[in-house]
Amino acid sequence: MIGNTLNILTFTQLKLFQNNRSAFYLTVESISNLLNQLLFIAINILISLYGDDATEKSLIWCRFRYAAAQVLVLFTSYTLCLAAGDQFFSTNYQLNLRNLCTIRLARWLSGIFVCIWLIHSIVFTTSFNIQPSIGCTISDPIWLRYSTYFFYPVLIGLLPICIASLFNILAFRNVRRIVRRQLPIARRRLDQQMTALVLIRVVMLAVLFSPYAIFRTYSLNTPTAQGQSLQYAVTRLIQAIVLSLYWLNISLSCFVFMILSPRYRRQVVFTLKKRCWRRLKSRCLMKTNQVTSENSNPSNISNIEPE
Predict the structure, then answer these.
(1) What range does the record give for the signal peptide (predicted)?
(2) End-to-end Cα separation, the chain, in angstroms
(3) Is-contact 39 72, C-beta < 8 A?
């Protein structure tokens, strides 16, 4: 949760990222990841209180849990596709393609994708039912074939990874040509930085999320009952490893950004020190009725955002 919160603060507080479509997409993706983490925490609270996640007891909760998870997973994956596509168009040498994408279009596309995945997940999870000794799983054979041959291997597996990778490779090629174009240095640096950040997220998606899609396809076709002790234990072990990679994918993006991008690391530090901490400090001082003068301590240089 810390990493996604830092991403949201950095992309929303710095003027450098305002009205930048890729920064908007990464912000929305971080919000989706944060909601996914909150859902995971809620499920773990249920397990700690009642011994299970209640999906085997309530059909409504069974369907709601998987519908919410599907919406967040699909939205996260295809938001990265939108971010990669936006970087390709915004770095293109043709002016009409650069002007094709706007922040208003980015907001509209995000809203449309939310509606599409919400409708899809609601319809899809109507096929989920509670089966004895197995739990909440797909019972309709038609939807089972759909999830086996299209949903997990293609819709949330290969398709978003291929789309995002293709656009990001093309955007990276465009960025290498930016030097030849007469653009402001700040614009060049921002385009290069956003292309690098989106590329990092796409690589993380391909490496850390692919095992989850493969495992879900396998587990739906070969459900293991708890009575089969050895096979059940092996399946649970593989599930734990796959889920660990899955949560790394949605949790570590900020820290990977900071490790691989010194510029982004400086921007995060600036956001925490000069923006968030200063606002928190001023509010605390106002509550205690202490008179402070913010303009007398920091110099003008300290208020300049890092490029």
Answers:
(1) none
(2) 26
(3) yes
Element (H, E) at 75: helix 59-90
Q: Which residues pair with 128 in a beta bridge?
A: 138
Confidence of residue 291 (pLDDT cuts 50, 70, 90): very low
Of 193, 188, 191, 208, which Cα lies nearest the Cα of 253? Answer: 208
Q: What is the H or E stretch that residue 138 is in?
A: strand 135-138
Triad 256, 262, 264: Cα angle to 5°: 70
In one letter, which amino acid is 262? P
Instruction: Say how many CA atoms lie within 13 Å of 164 toward its Cβ.
Output: 29
pLDDT tens track for 268-279: 888 888 766 666
Those residues with Cβ within 8 angstroms of residue 138's Cβ, 6 or more apart along the chain or in another chain: 127, 128, 129, 144, 147, 220
What's the sign of the alpha-carbon dihedral 286, 291, 297, 298?
positive
The torsion angles phi and psi of 95, rounded to 5 degrees, stand at -65, -40
Residue 223 φ then ψ, to 5°? -65, 140
* CA-closest candidate to residue 202, choices 20, 22, 10: 22
Amino acid identity, position 240: A
Q: Domain 2-260 belongs to what topology?
A: Rhopdopsin 7-helix transmembrane proteins (1.20.1070)
Instruction: Give the integer Cα–Cα distance in Å for 196 and 186.
Output: 15
Whole-number Cα distances in Å, 47 to 51, 54, 60, 111: 5, 8, 17, 33
C-alpha span between 4 and 27 (Å, rounded):
8
Per the rule left: phi > 0, alpha: psi between -120 and 50, beta: everything else, 18 is: beta
Would you mind telling me the total number of residues written for the chain in this entry? 307
- Taking only Cα atoms into account, the Rg of the chain, rounded to an integer number of angstroms, comes to 22
For the chain, domain boundaries: 2-260
Cβ-based neighbours of 19, under 8 Å, separated by 6 or more:
103
